[in-house]
Amino acid sequence: MTSEGTVRPGGRTARVREAVLRAAGDLLAERGFAGLDLAEVAQRAEVGKTTVYRRWGSATGLVADLLVEMADSSVSRTETGSLLGDLRTNAHLVRRTLVDERQGALFKAVIAAATCDARTAAALHAFYATRVGEWAPCVTAAIERGEAPVGTDPHEVIRAVSAPLYYRLLASGDPLDEASADRAAAAAEAATRAGAFVR
């Protein structure tokens, strides 16, 4: 049985899903979670209200499916051959996403919603688990090359790269420039080599 808002069929239904999720993302970026009205999503997507209500049921259902779509369509991991290179690539990908006018606003809205809605929080956690899991093999390869101590937790290393960037986005308001991405990657790499993430 598939949970609400996560069916991924093809054909016309896939086109409807794409249009609805695009409209939902636009509204989230513009107005935040509180402004995510299913009737307006349907109008923008040019589909019937009953289609949206029947398939997603709630704003939370829409956000959950939107996060599934974002995880599925995110940029794939790349390998540079070095731990620092891989972490820097990851940091710059995160930074570009967060400074994007639409994507940055979208993440802020979803994170804000997740603080007060358990289902949105679960969808957000699943999204980040997917992203972190996709990049963790870079750290595993670094362990095999001798760039990181045996026993290093790859997932913790990847989390350490993006954490300072999200802090700038959500808390401090400091610039999210390329230098900040480089520093985040360098700090995570140095901490990794020093054994900070050994289980």
Automatic annotation (TrEMBL):
DNA-binding region(s), residue ranges: 37-56
The superkingdom listed in its UniProt entry is: Bacteria
- Pinpoint the HTH tetR-type domain residues: 14-74
Asked whether the UniProt record includes Cytoplasm among its keywords, one would answer: no
Q: Which UniProt keywords apply?
A: DNA-binding, Transcription, Transcription regulation
The record, for Pfam families, names: TetR_C_11, TetR_N
Q: Which GO terms describe its molecular function?
A: DNA-binding transcription factor activity; transcription cis-regulatory region binding
The family database entries (InterPro entries) matched by this protein are listed as: Homeodomain-like_sf, HTH-type_TetR-like_transc_reg, HTH_TetR, Tet_transcr_reg_TetR-rel_C_sf, TetR_C
* Protein name in the entry: TetR family transcriptional regulator
| Native source species | Embleya scabrispora
Taxonomic placement:
Bacteria, Bacillati, Actinomycetota, Actinomycetes, Kitasatosporales
